[in-house]
Amino acid sequence: MLTHGHFDHAGSAASLADLWGVKVYAHRLEHPYLKGESAYPRLDYTAPGFFSALSRLFPSTTVNLGHRLAELKMDEPPGGIDGWQCIFTPGHTPGHTAFFHRNSGTIVAGDAVTTMNLDSVFDTLLQRQELCRPPIPATTDWEKARSSVQLLASLRPVVIGAGHGNPMSNVADDLKRLAENFPIPPQGRYVKEPARADERGVTYLPPPPFDPAPKRAAVLAGAALIAGIGTLLLRRQRTNLESQKRETT
Description:
By secondary structure, the protein is of the alpha+beta class. Helix content is 34%, strand content 16%. It has helices spanning 7-10, 13-20, 31-34, 50-54, 121-126, 142-154, 172-180, 213-248; strands spanning 24-26, 69-71, 84-88, 97-101, 106-110, 114-116, 129-132, 159-162, 168-169, 196-198, 201-204. It has a five-stranded mixed sheet with strand order 3-4-5-8-9, with no helix packed on it.
């Protein structure tokens, strides 16, 4: 069962399905991306935070599961496993789903929340535990993401396992605070206007914001080129002066 289809959550699904002889279940709104029919909306590396800058290196495509893919039914126990239920939590992706075990109060949250602060390079490297919003560059509908966190908070879970960070316990109050003060980023491609999608995949993307990185890279490249040319000219000048001195001597 997949919470969603991003490459870091579905990368081994085909191999495991073949090894075990099973289907891979995901919400129907995730199917276009897992069948190669559509790519996810482009990651927003212009949004603030360490993870956003790092996302320039990440793809928007994911694995193609083909015949292995099956629909995850929201009104049935995931995979027929009694005691668990599917919780529809869109926002990070169109068909994002969490899994809740009511008796133990356990939520498998995918990327609906994280248990580490991906905006901070130090917190990410140290994996300091903190209940936080979903990863910024890949979240394409922030209002739905907020509503999904509010829904998870209403379940009053005891334990959360998320896609980024280590599992956390005694999280009910922390999750309630996150839901009540959900931090939508101050800027980003999908902040003011979400991406839209249906069973076919992405149907609309808001225009990309200005990205200063290429301009900065061009300026740095130009400065490096000028510095290189200047160094070469100085070396030639010194060589000529040394030659003239030897000739004079």
